[in-house]
Structure prediction request, 282 residues.
Amino acid sequence: MNHLGYLFAANLFVWGAIFFYVFTLIKKNNQLKQDLQLIKETLPKDSES
Amino acid sequence: MNEDNESGPPILIWFTVLMFIAAISAIFMYVPTEKTEGIIQRIMYFHIPCAWLAFFAFFIVFVCSILFLWKKDREWDIYAHASAEIGVVFCSLVLITGPLWAKPVWGTWWVWDARLTSTLVLWLIYIAYLMLRMRTDAGSMRARYAAVVGIAGFLDIPIIHFSVLWWRTFHPKPKMITSEGIGTGMANEMVITLGISLFAFTLLYFLMMEQRIALEKMKDEIDRLKREKLYSN
Prediction:
């Protein structure tokens, strides 16, 4: 049985799914870091006023 | 808290990348082609590590859920939630790579045998776990309900493992760990390749956990600061 293309496609799918999940995690992490920074910056200003 | 995670653990990242290069090289260049199934059998080197990782992740959910119910410490709830999500990702990959392997070998994508069905049940249990967390309000009750589901769900894993021995199934019996020992049912090259792949995937789990835990802790921190801001106004 020669299924080289099929095997390649299956592997590509697995790796694609793993990379997509890791990429989503990193993106969410960066977004939250920015949000956290923004909130921390606004907090002292509020307490002063 | 998060400042510590900003740079990440570079040694772990590079070691994981290195192990994956080794695993992929071994899968496509080192390991011999299986005689009956042919080249398609190489899906096994992704399918089994994904299954191992899903089971390992759900085991961590099980342990952390027990610790949460015992200690009532939010930290354990965070670990359980993070591990459940990663477990679902890899359980999904098991349910995808399995049929991809089955179609050319069995002639069908899916059969309702004990191993496949119990794995699907496991996936549904932890999907329910994640939905429960999404749909209920944050707080100790949500964490408690989730912990109970996390513990109960793990009971399916021994059923999955022994299903091929207890019932007659399409799914083959374990070859890696048999009554004669570890790796006795496979060629040495296959055992080595599978070992490298299992190790690489386990490292990936720890990397994902590190990211997922940091994410959950940042959400907590943002919620805490928002509450502080609300009360100060």
User: Anything to note?
Assistant: Chain B has one domain: 46-232. Residues 1-5 of chain B have pLDDT under 50 and may be disordered. Residues 188-232 of chain B form the longest helix (45 residues).
